[in-house]
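Changelog-adjacent note: as of this version, every example in the card shows the full chain rather than a window. The one below runs 470 residues end to end.
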Amino acid sequence: MQGFGFLLFAIQAPLLGPRPFGLMSVVMVFAGFVEQVLGECASETLISLLDIEDAHFAIMNTLGAAVSLLFGAGVYALAGPLARWFGEPELLPLGHTMALLPLLSVVAAPANAACKRAMQFRPLALRSIVSLIAGGAVGVALTLMHFGVWALVWQVMTQKLVAAVVLWQAVPLRLRFGVSGRHLADLPRYAVPLIVSRSMSWASGSVPRFILGSFLGVNDLGIMSLALRLSDIAVQVFVVPRYAVARVALREYARARAGLGDAIRQLVFRYALLNFPACVGAAVLMPTLFHTWLDARWYPGIVPAQLLLLMGMPAVTLYTVGALLMALNQQRAEAWLESAQTIAALAVVLIAAPFGLLVSAAAIAARPFALLPLPLLMAARRCAVPAAQILRPQLPLLLASLGMGAVLALLQRILTPWVHGLLLLPLLVGTGAAIYAALVALLDPPFAARTLERLKSWWRRASATLGLEP
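Full-length structure tokens:
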């Protein structure tokens, strides 16, 4: 999904320029609230219920529809003030149209929860891929027809609509509504802390964009959005899927903690194995990527993108602790942690935004590193998981990633004057992958031996299937 999303962006960014993406970032600050907060809260609440009935899903459908319609009306009403605040008249019709987005975003939350509770992730993958392709086709077509920012609007609307339809068609759960006082009483215990937590998470990601746009303007906000998107890709690909599985799989330790330490070590290692080299390697390759792909309108985003890509590395610890807290039903602790992160994010942006794009990016990137002790302390106090158990598995992979990054930086500096970017990028990516694999094998021989044995086993099975064995 992220690969296809990046391909769409690769097509649209050179044609549209930063401004349309900045306008969409402003609108999505408010239009995205329902999906990022209420939709996720609805899904997580239904997952957290130990004993669940169909009536729980029905009442969540009712609550979701009512609240999303209310927030849609709010987005419609805010369109005028937003247009005046930013001095961008185009925000008025954009806001009016995007008022439909909250309903499209939250309607699939109960079906999402049903799939995750059953550990059935195939329908979720199908939903994501099909909806992204449908939305992408609409977005690219409208981009090529010179619809400007409206290409992005209808791309998002199509994607959310198709996602909801596909998911409800894929799950053995009827879309029905209802109200039950007994079942409603089961929800607040989980829902209230989750609403606080997800609201803080939304605020830490969205409100800073509003502040940055107010100081920098929508053009620089579009550049910052690109940098944040590149940073988000590594986390969404290499961390979030494992978090979605771990958040459910670790529930078995809610009653008995035996074996939790080993499960945490394996989870952290798997988080970091690809996330660390992706963040470091991509940060090193940003100059070549920007000059090969984009025009001069985007070049001020090179250094911000490099800084924000490194921000993905603390995500290993943050998502590990988040999955642990949620699986062990420590929703209040997770809400407190998200609140602290949000307060820090807002403070950082308010201080840094008046000093421009580069200072803002540096401050935003430094925040998760500075706050890393907070989740580690929370894991130790609420889950009896010491910090060393989370940090130690990351060390060999961190060293391997930094070593690979240093070699890539040197090669890029030497080869850039002589090799075109279209050839240089795959050359550097392949070299970086080989160097990283060699360093991991050197620093963690047991893992390298297990991986080699798995590859041999896979090759034997593939050869037998294809009839290649003698």
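Structural remarks: Residues 187-393 form one domain.
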